[in-house]
């Protein structure tokens, strides 16, 4: 389950996908590109790599940026935390840097192995990047269907 939320992405070509806003009302990114996915739900193959990029313009300055990813099966939130080395989103900026200035363009990149103990289900993934105070800078939801290798 730990890497299930990263299963949203598969490597091949990256395309922008339409994403949904989070219930917290945070802004969505300008663009989300998931390798091998052009529309929801993205097909995630166990054992593949999750590759995604998102672009946004920072609405405010912040010293650092925290990443969180949550998995939902219907309305049930599956307990999950990103590994400690992936929580500091600043380490994964391809464009922009910390500290972030208001109006700065940021490209956030995430690449990680996809693993899950089950296949044949569709889950919702929620990715959020938050400022130093924990206030969301961006947040979005997308769906992924988990398939076997």
From TrEMBL:
Domain MD-2-related lipid-recognition stretches: 19-144
Any one of the GO BP annotations: intracellular cholesterol transport
Main location: secreted
Annotated protein name in UniProt: Niemann-Pick Type C-2
Keywords: Secreted, Signal
Pfam families: E1_DerP2_DerF2
Keyword Signal: yes
Subcellular location(s) per record: Secreted
Family per similarity comment: Belongs to the NPC2 family.
SMART domains linked to this entry: ML
Source organism superkingdom: Eukaryota
């Amino acid at each position: 389950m730990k890497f299930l939320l990263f299963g949203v992405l598969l490597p091949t070509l990256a395309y922008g996908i339409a994403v949904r806003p989070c219930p917290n009302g945070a802004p969505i990114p300008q663009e989300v590109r998931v390798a091998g996915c052009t529309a929801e739900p993205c097909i995630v193959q166990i054992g593949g790599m999750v590759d995604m990029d998102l672009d946004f313009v920072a609405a405010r300055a912040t010293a650092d940026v925290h990443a969180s990813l949550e998995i939902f099966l219907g309305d049930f939130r599956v307990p999950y935390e990103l590994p400690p080395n992936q929580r500091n989103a600043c380490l994964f900026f391809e464009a922009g840097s910390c500290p972030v200035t208001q109006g700065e363009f940021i490209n956030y990149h995430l690449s990680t192995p996809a693993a899950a103990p089950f296949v044949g289900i569709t889950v919702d993934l929620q990715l959020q990047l938050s400022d130093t105070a924990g206030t969301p800078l961006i947040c979005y939801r997308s769906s992924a269907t988990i398939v076997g290798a």
